Amino acid sequence: MRKEHTQLALQALLQAVGVFMYTAGVGWILTNGERIFGKMQNFWGPIAFLMLFVLSATVVGVLIFGRPVLLYLDNKRTEAIILLLTTIAWLAVITFVVLSVQLIG
């Protein structure tokens, strides 16, 4: 494997771990939401949840697609595609591990 591809694979892993850490944080907030914020008694609760959903989609989108788009726009199309596909592969591995832990535990 070329050095450049190794660096892209490492960057993809870091991006996937970043997505995992962010989603773990959001998952923790959702699991403990009632304890942290109290019981929802008006329309602000659903608005807050939807805003968190929109924010999460934005953050994860930037983590996954940000660097590949910049590479693509810099005419490094092969590197952009490799980075994107490798990030998706790492996300699949992390998802498999999380699902396995959930099923075992």
pLDDT averaged residue by residue: 92
Unreliable runs, pLDDT <50, ≥5 residues? none
Q: How many distinct folded domains?
A: 1
Please report the distance between the alpha carbons of the first and last residues: 37 Å
Number of E-state strands:
0
Structural class: mainly alpha
SSE topology sketch:
Blueprint: H1 3-31, H2 33-37, H3 44-73, H4 77-104
Helix pairs in contact: 1-3, 1-4, 3-4
Give a written overview of the molecule.
This protein has helices at residues 3-31, 33-37, 44-73, 77-104. Helix 1 (3-31) runs antiparallel to helix 3 (44-73), helix 1 packs across helix 4 and helix 3 (44-73) runs antiparallel to helix 4. It is elongated. It has one domain. It is built from four helices and no strands. With 105 residues, the protein is an all-alpha fold.
Question: In short, what is this structure?
Answer:
This protein has 105 residues and is mostly helical. It is built from four helices and no strands. The mean pLDDT is 92.
Summary keywords:
88% helix, transmembrane helix, transmembrane, elongated, single chain, 105 residues, membrane, 4 helices
